[in-house]
Amino acid sequence: MRQATQTLRRLRSPLAQTRYQLKVLHQPIETHAFPTFADTLRQHGKYPLKRAKLEILQLNLGKLCNQTCRHCHVDAGPDRKDEVMSKELLQRALDLVRIHHIPTVDLTGGAPEMNPHFRWFVEQCSAVCSHIIDRCNLTIITAGKQYRDLPQFFARHGLHIVSSLPHYSKNRTDAQRGEGVFEASIEALRMLNDVGYGQPDSNLQLDLVFNPTGAFLPSQQCTLERVYKDKLLRKYGIRFNRLIVITNMPINRFLDYLLQTGQYEQYMQTLIDAFNPATVDGLMCRNTLSVSWDGYLYDCDFNQMLDLKINHTSPHLLDIDIDSLEGLPIALHQACYGCTAGAGSSCSGEIAS
Amino acid sequence: MAKDGYFNPDDLKRFGEITRYQKTLGKKYFDYYNEVFKEGALTVREKALIALAVAHVVQCPYCIDAYTEECLKNGADEEEMMEAIHVAAAIRSGASLVFGVQMINHIEKKTM
User: Which residue of A68, A241, B12, B49 has the fewest C-beta atoms within 10 A of its own C-beta?
Assistant: First the structure.
């Protein structure tokens, strides 16, 4: 498997600094400025946007990944070895899940399975939480013999697997995720199917994620799901449950791609033109608490990557007061347009069909 | 393409302006257009591939840009899109070649 690119950090890109990214997102383009996201919400009577009841605890187990995808909003990669969540923080997360009966724990990364405490955490967590999502990049399953039993491990603990496969064709997938990723992903999907994931008579849920392999918005989730199911079954004998459609966010490596290819302005305009007020109430930042590998708290994964911490005096997992989160104003920025475009976008896919 | 040339990509965004001097007919056209491209007996994806193929036959650069993007949004890949324009090209070339029969008829009529 060949890496599609290198991390912004390794390339020493100015975009590796979140402050620089925010500056790019908020500076006027040539002669005009885009309307701010906050102003657009105000216009539609949706400002301020406030946090609702906490339903999902999303833990970024680390930025370490075996892939370096061209669109990655985390800027994850094999060189980010020093940024993985500690056992102390994972224990704290477990305590919170147990005490507050948080319904869903969502594990993401990087490749969450590369965190050395991943299996320990899942074993402990599955005793106190009935819905654990693992955002698995698929290729980690075939990345080495220490990972090849992951499908059985996932199945044993009833994990809900959500996996990126940006296209059912090799060309499109490899262009975004690296040469050889498609074939490794197909092998991993077969292994997941073999232990019962995605099968019609099984409770083991396997969802795939479609995100556009370029600077355009995705189409309707239901239409794409039909095509995906048909193509993957006919050509590879692969089954899965749902297709989750996600819009690419103009941050980190996708922002870099937009700037490098001169498509930034047009893409932002596309997102702004497609603003859909019906998506606002269902935005994931309202019911999710996103925790970075070093324990800081954010309204969502994207705010985490821009280092816009939750609006609280104690934005750290070790000091958190869960009950005080509801009603807090959510930190907003221009990339938020990515979640409100068209049918909307979240870690669970479309918001307003 | 030059900004002041015949085909300015920015003009596509102004397509709606064709209603300017004929509101009634313009509106009817857009209503019809929007209805045609809705999911029906054919999927939105199938319609996008047909539109892409037709765009190549009528050689409309605006339509080619618009329906290339529409196909990508609907999950089509390069192979499917190229195959669609080959279908268009095959019909287009066939439409020329079939007149070869007329040529043959005329040869037979005119020669010994």
Answer: B12
